[in-house]
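Model: Ready when you are.
Researcher: Fold this.
Model:
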Amino acid sequence: MLIEFTDKGLYCSAGNFYIDPWKPVDKAVITHAHSDHARWGHKAYLSHYLTVPLLQARLGPQQYQGIGWNEPVYMNGVKVSLHPAGHIIGSSQVRVEYQGEVWVVSGDYKTENDGISGAFEPVPCNTFITESTFGLPIYTWQPQPVIFEQVREWVQRNGKARQNSVFIAYSLGKAQRLLKALEPLQQPVYVHGAVWNMHQALVSAGIDLPPVQRITPETPKETFQSAIIIAPPSADGSPWMKKFTPYEVGVCSGWMQVRGNMRRRNADAAFALSDHADWPGLLSAVKATGAQQVYVTHGFQSAFSRYLNEQGIWSAEVKTEYGGEEETEENTVTEDNTTGGAA
């Protein structure tokens, strides 16, 4: 096998490197900067150059190497290149080629072009390693423009009722897409410190994003009148939210496709805005690679793998330590709005 599934992560023995390892290693190729794929402790990191400032913000000073998409690097004769995954800014698929065999590790991806993350690029290969976060037919997303319009309409309704609109969205990926959705309203957007940190890292790297204002302990409560606030999941229900009263909460997550999840989260509004591929996207991505064998990682891997086998595509499940950023945020929230971790 060109890539082995080990207790440290996906390992290419011929090139002596790992892809998104979850235990410390010497050489790590990183698909993107979410915490379940990019962990602290590796001796050397290789990623897309737009991922580097995000890794720096989250992991601090390390040995980083940034490259562009489709810019080959050779490790012990193994050809490695990165290709757009469309998941978040800088997210990449990893193509590994050695002695005529090609494997592609997708990391996390979505097939709808969100306008800021780079359009997903199907990469022909012999073996494809795919996520399956939303690998069930029930998960079929509405087009992004439709969801963006729903977002703006909700804000406008809250404004007329003199309520603040608090969006719960992951600080890296979802928050940046929300800013683009809200831009036409031409209203100030206030953000939690975790969102601010990622915003600053991206803007400093040259990414064009709408301006935001950081919420600090000194920000007067009177500032928030029919205001727009973006906060990570860890802030939801915390004392930090008190100063926004009266407010409504809108949760942005693919899990909101299932109505019961909205009730369980005590959300006032739900937007099924996901940075992962839906069921049709997963199927189209797999088929576009032309892969003879497919390994399915985190998510509904059992159902998705079984369906691929039924369609005549050899598939097997693989256990990894990926997954979770749709539901959790690694930053903790305190009364003074400081955040734990690197972000």
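Researcher: Now this one.
Model:
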Amino acid sequence: MRRVTVLVLLLACAAARAAAAVVTDGLLPNGNFEEGPPKSDLVNGTVVRGANAIPRWETSGYVEYIESGHKQGDMLLVVPQGAHAVRLGNEASIRQRLAVTRGAYYAVTFSAARTCAQAEQLNVSVSPEWGVLPMQTIYGSNGWDSYAWAFKAKMDEVALVIHNPGVEEDPACGPLIDGVAIRALYPPTLAKGNMLKNGGFEEGPYFLPNASWGVLVPPNIEDDHSPLPAWMIMSSKAVKYVDAAHFAVPQGARAVELVGGKESALVQEVRTVPGWTYRLSFTVGDARDGCAGSMVAEAYAARASIKVPYESKGTGGYKRAVLEFAAIANRTRVVFQSTFYHTMTDGSLCGPVIDDASLVGLRKKTAGRRLLL
């Protein structure tokens, strides 16, 4: 009897391993939820019955399978992409097992739309890591945003869980989830002639197909688990990661748009020698997303700072800026942020783009010079 029990357990473990999706860059299996449950597993047309009713996903709690155009009272629920999404009610979650490389870094990207609550948030976890993504601010005008969250794989097989911890009066109230994707991250090393890692922001999360709204990197992200390797988001608002396929990018294929005003700070900490002088150079521009007006991007390092004015027509363009500073400690934080909030005509939050940042040591005492090129 004991041998039979052990055999059953081994078979169960083997089945679990076989069910795990092997991670490749892009949408997870049925990550867009276009494969739906049988109609017999939908109560009242939307409520999912059974933990494994949605192919490739495991659900718990009050989960709805929503079709584009579905109405909730007088409100039309908007599906971010394609024809279907899931909605997570109070304490509901979706889960998928992933076969990953132990010790590797990954970024998860997904779209979320707020439906009826005003202070929704999502818990995202890959055991034993977890994070909280606040949804009080909707950055785009479409009713949804795409978010990125990163983790380091502690095992060869992990479970990705997106959970709604809300306690709304209506148990069905909760965010719509769509387009769940993943991308392996390769933490950048120092390039010759640049003390900043990932200064061109080329390493970052996956962009969903045809997602012309970019990807938000949420606030309070430390560099150990940042979707933008080597960079931290140290304030209360997100920054937006943009790509050359949908936006104007000054250099390379990717850049960062500062959409949170002074409430959003992009930070990297570097090793410095007290008393030495360093030169920080970077590009400021606009993303060709209709964000027009008088922008000001700020940069800080040690006791030095610079404000870079940029008159945006919202059609693309950029300028270079340089800040020289003297280090006052063994480690120095390089900080970028926008002086002002900006919005497009449709109400979407926007701001100046930062790209092609580099830092070099000069070893001379000429700090404090601010140069606009």
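Researcher: Key takeaway?
Model: Residues 19-185 form a domain with the Jelly Rolls fold (CATH 2.60.120.260).
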